[in-house]
């Protein structure tokens, strides 16, 4: 039986976080019921958090099931050859009412050895930023395990880390090993490898509603950290009705697509494509059927969906695997 081909949307997987807020509802119209909702997982095959399709013939079906039945058609021939039945990326929106913990993610080799998982290379697109909002990315100057541990013990770790003020439209690309934290007052679109492995280094000594501090992973992090100064900020062009490359790495390619009017898209069947709508609204027309999307929507284009039209006025992230 052949795959019924159309753009796929998924039920948001909403996550309460100690640092979360309500902007996922007020800004992105997510159906949150908690005042500490920190994350909306838009597209996930992380075990225990597998996305479920909400539209069309496959409504109610898990993404993992669809991939299992139609791996080449959903993932693409190149992606399937490289990753098998695994969907290799995870897409999220985050609302940081407070600072996230200072953390780091292991690389593929370490994550495989310790957790049988992918590593976690990721990127952030800043969708909304309160005045003076900032992020932490890497060290101010090249550091060392000893310096890091000394500052950790004296609760002065932040003093040797690079704090960067941010504004909407800023993009940061974080390779594994980069110590980081999303600061308070930010809404971020996040694209990352399929992994939920995070080593928490410092959590600002805060406590949850029960008076407990969250677990730290100081020893695990030692081997995972890149102690060198890194450049994470990405410059990119914004040419209208064109895919402007922001990040092109072994794990994903992300383009910025400012849509104003109509664009005809042709695909080769080698990779799936994901669109995240950052601003405005647009429609996809495929086989004479129109599908509509607005700010905060995420849509998966199966690799077998070769030719379609985009129409509207929107800022879109376009993601695929090269």
Automatic annotation (TrEMBL):
Which residues belong to any copy of the Mannose-6-phosphate isomerase cupin domain? 244-320
The record's Gene Ontology biological-process terms are:
carbohydrate metabolic process
- Which residues are in the Phosphomannose isomerase type I catalytic domain? 10-117
Q: Does the keyword Zinc apply?
A: yes
Task: Please give the cofactor(s) recorded in the UniProt entry for this protein.
Answer: Zn(2+)
Report the co-factor binding details: Binds 1 zinc ion per subunit.
Give the binding site residues for Zn(2+): 105, 122, 180
| Residues annotated as the enzyme's active site | 200
From the UniProt record, which GO molecular function terms apply?
mannose-6-phosphate isomerase activity; zinc ion binding
Name the Pfam families on file.
Answer: MPI_cupin_dom, PMI_typeI_cat
Q: Keyword annotations for this protein?
A: Isomerase, Metal-binding, Zinc
Q: Ion transport: present as a keyword of the record?
A: no
Query: Can you name this protein?
Result: Phosphohexomutase
Per the UniProt entry, what species is this protein from, by scientific name? Flavobacterium laiguense
């Amino acid at each position: 039986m052949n795959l019924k081909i159309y753009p796929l949307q998924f039920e948001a997987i909403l996550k309460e976080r100690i640092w979360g807020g309500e902007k996922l509802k007020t800004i992105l119209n997510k159906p949150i019921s908690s005042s500490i909702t920190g994350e909306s997982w838009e597209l996930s095959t992380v075990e225990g958090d597998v996305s479920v399709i909400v539209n069309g013939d496959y409504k109610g079906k898990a993404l993992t099931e669809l991939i299992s039945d139609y791996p080449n058609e959903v993932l693409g021939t190149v992606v399937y050859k490289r990753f098998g039945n695994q969907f290799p990326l995870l897409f999220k929106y985050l609302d940081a009412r407070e600072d996230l913990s200072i953390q780091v993610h292991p690389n593929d080799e370490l994550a495989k050895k310790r957790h049988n998982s992918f590593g976690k290379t990721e990127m952030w697109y800043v969708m909304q930023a309160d005045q003076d909002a900032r992020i932490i990315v890497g060290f101010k100057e090249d550091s060392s395990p000893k310096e890091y541990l000394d500052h950790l013990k004296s609760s002065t770790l932040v003093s040797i880390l690079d704090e960067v003020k941010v504004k909407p439209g800023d993009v940061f690309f974080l390779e594994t090993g980069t110590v980081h934290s999303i600061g308070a007052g930010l809404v971020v679109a996040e694209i990352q490898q399929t992994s939920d492995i995070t080593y928490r280094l410092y959590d600002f000594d805060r406590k949850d509603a029960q008076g407990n501090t969250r677990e730290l992973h100081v020893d695990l992090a030692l081997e995972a950290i890149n102690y060198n100064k890194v450049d994470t900020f990405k410059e990119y062009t914004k040419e209208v009705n064109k895919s402007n490359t922001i990040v092109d790495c072994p794990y994903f390619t992300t383009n910025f697509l400012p849509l104003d009017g109509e664009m005809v898209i042709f695909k080769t069947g080698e990779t799936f494509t994901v669109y995240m709508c950052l601003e405005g609204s647009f429609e996809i027309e495929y086989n004479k059927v129109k599908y509509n999307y607005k700010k905060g929507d995420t849509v998966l284009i199966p690799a077998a969906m070769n030719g379609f039209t985009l129409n509207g006025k929107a800022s879109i992230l376009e993601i695929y695997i090269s």
